[in-house]
Amino acid sequence: MKRENMEQELFLGVNATIEQRWQALSLNIQACYERLAGDREVVREAGIMWTCGHVAISAVDVSQINEQIGRLVNWYRRQLPLQGAICWYLTATPPGDLAARMFARGFEPNWQPHWMWCELSYLKEHHTYPSNVSIRVVEDDPVWQVDNLPYYNKKDVAILAALAHVQPRRVWHLAAFRGQQVVGRCFLNVTTGERGIGGLFSMGVIPAARKQGIGTALAQAACELARQVGCHHVVLNATEMGEPVYRRVGFQSMGYGHTWYLRDRTLAASALTEEQVALLEAVGRGDIALLDEASKRVEERVLHEAAPNGLTPLDIAVRCQQSASAEWLVKHGVCLDLLSAWDLGWKEQIPILLASHPELVNLQRGEWRATPLHTAIQRDDLELVKLLLVVPHDLSIKDGEFGSTALGWANYFERPEMIALIEQCQTRWKR
């Protein structure tokens, strides 16, 4: 790759402030998803961009945000076939009550991205990986028949191939090959100008090739390519598994962000009424006066039922940490479950609930149809596990996603103390 093709371009300087880095990150993410959209529509409107599969929020105007969210949700409803979208909040400013507004209009909780940043002057080099593995930039490679390569979407192949021929070039697709077999890949997205940086996306290594240095080598190669182009910085979103890999290359934590998800099944369902949206938003914002008024304009069942995004009003109160709203809902007849009480910090309520409603320990909820014990194990919350195991469980219950018992989850996540506790309870409850 030749540096002279972009040597006149501007990039974010080495002494960038935190604010400048966040601005650069936001611009790079937006550019990436706009480029991946190909010839599909991209909408930009007062700090929000949306296109197929992605929403990016870089600024929030409180006077407009509700209408904007409504318009973008309706835009996705008009796209056929229906396709869900992830919403990225791309600013260092706390999102305030944005989550409440999103939940009320169909979005649901999603993972918390971990943004990591590498100043390329501190790039660590000379990483080792298997000698039979080669890393190269791919141009017009056909669709790879690799079923277990993370983040590899065959639909993106044609777009990435087309972007390889756009001049000046801004996107490079890198792959790790063992012989003719693809064992890993990622792509580099470059933005230019005063906030120009490199963005590393879709890093993935097949399970059989992990812990061999291939991910580190791919990240190293992408960063070296960014440096050759002229970039001084590269940013990425790290998974828990990937974080150690990126630290070895020279990345440091920039902080955690926020994302929400809009599912295609939510888009396919009937839209909520304005009154229902107002009630759910009031719950998420902890606006009790508005909640009193909004509740008069909806049927009582709305307080108890899940909206199309799978969230009940109590779920929204918990997600937004609105204890006052949760108290209001309980006073109006909504049943308090064990995890909601725990997540609201109402630990003293757990023994009371267990004594009066022991059947709650076997309640399966959420997309995975997990019991409270499953969830406590996933979270590695030993205190909650101990508290839940005070009363007998049906330990044969399997979750709805993976078909595994709570003990199976404890083994999968390698929680030895939890395994011992569950096995002791199994023995005790059989007597």
UniProtKB/TrEMBL annotation:
It comes from the Bacteria. The lineage of its organism: Bacteria, Bacillati, Chloroflexota, Ktedonobacteria, Ktedonobacterales. One of its GO terms (molecular function) is acyltransferase activity, transferring groups other than amino-acyl groups. Gene3D superfamilies: 3.40.630.30, Ankyrin repeat-containing domain (1.25.40.20). It comes from Reticulibacter mediterranei. Residues 133-273 form the N-acetyltransferase domain. This is N-acetyltransferase domain-containing protein. Transmembrane segments: none annotated. CDD domains: NAT_SF. InterPro entries: Acyl_CoA_acyltransferase, Ankyrin_rpt, Ankyrin_rpt-contain_sf, Bact_Acetyltransf, GNAT_dom. Keywords: Acyltransferase, ANK repeat, Transferase. ANK repeats lie at residues 368-400.
